[in-house]
Design a protein that fits this description.
Helix 1 crosses helix 6 and helix 5 crosses helix 7. Helix 1 links the parallel strand 1 and strand 2. The mean pLDDT is 88. This protein has a 7-stranded parallel sheet with strand order 3-2-1-4-5-6-11, sandwiched between helices. The protein is of the alpha/beta class. The protein has 11 helices and 13 strands. The longest helix is centred in the first third of the chain and has 18 residues.
């Protein structure tokens, strides 16, 4: 793993699923953590909270002041925002412009993978944000992960609820799509290492987990870890759009968010390569079962 020169790291989305795990990991590597919040917050556990709204340009200069590296971990997909792609473009443009003005040396962005065909609105937005950030003046390390396994992950929550709550599931054809789920612990290690990864220019990297798994296999493995047998009836006509509707009844995940995530599962979401793990000397990845056990135990 590259050695860190530490300094200050600005973390947007610091109170979210990824951000809350990243903050203590950055502190352990010697970084001073500057976290953003839309409302004033007192310092907690050595974290300096800075009031910032990425849609309010006037609030950005003070938030970026003194930061050597800046993490972009926010998105506008939840709730009922029908214009989330526009919101994400605007926040990414404001972020990269402010980072450049503040003299930030590196931006690290956690996005989503590129499918082989036409991406869903969610994946298209995630990829667009990466393009906007990489087009700026500050070198960017864009990391692309599909399903992150951990308590608090929206995609994990969906498959966890389906596997644990349903005695029998009508299995749509699209759950044959394959991906490579990755443990939260490995994603955090990647984000920390990306702060000091030598880069001659902005670049994106996939973050694949150790196993290629279909949606059905993911559900079966989670059910087995809970001592259940996962029973499924295959039907080819249940579209992702219809599937998203019954998710409203099954999962605790925000419905608008769940719908967009399901629509992104129509094709395989497999990585281009695994080179990032080699670059940071982190090739011992947590297995799916170990990551899933940890996620289930931490509920």
């Amino acid at each position: 793993m590259p050695s860190s020169s530490s300094g200050a790291a600005l973390v947007t989305g610091a109170s979210g699923f990824i951000g809350s795990a990243l903050v203590p990991a950055l502190q352990a590597r010697g970084f001073q953590v500057l976290a953003t919040s839309r409302r004033p917050r007192a310092p907690t556990n050595g974290v300096e909270w800075r009031t910032c709204d990425l849609l309010d340009p006037a609030s950005l200069p003070a938030a970026f002041e003194g930061a050597r590296v800046a993490y972009y971990l926010v998105h506008s997909m939840g709730g009922n925002a029908s214009n989330f792609r526009d919101l994400e473009r605007r926040t990414a443009e404001a972020f990269v412009a402010s980072a450049a003005k503040a003299g930030v040396e590196r931006i690290v962005y956690l996005g989503g993978p590129a499918p082989p065909g036409v991406p869903s609105e969610h994946l298209r937005s995630r990829l667009e944000v990466g393009e906007i950030l990489r087009a700026g003046a500050v070198p960017v390390a864009e990391l692309r992960a599909s399903m992150v396994i951990g308590n608090g992950s929206a995609s994990w929550q969906i498959v966890r609820d389906l596997a644990v709550r349903l005695p029998v599931m009508v299995l749509p054809k699209w759950l044959a799509s394959r991906t490579r789920p990755v443990a939260l612990q490995d994603v955090v290690a990647a984000l920390v290492a990306a702060a000091d990864l030598p880069l001659s220019h902005s670049e994106w990297f996939d973050l694949p987990g150790p196993e290629v798994m279909s949606g059905q296999q993911i559900l079966e493995r989670i059910a087995a870890l809970r001592g259940r047998q996962f029973l499924a009836l295959k039907v080819p006509f249940l579209s992702p759009q219809l599937s998203a509707l019954w998710l409203r009844l099954i999962t605790r995940t925000d419905f608008a968010l769940a719908r967009e995530l399901v629509l992104g599962l129509q094709e395989d979401l497999l990585p281009k390569d695994e080179r990032f793990w080699s670059l940071i000397d982190h090739e011992q990845l947590m297995s799916f079962d170990a990551a899933a056990r940890y996620a289930l135990a931490s509920e």
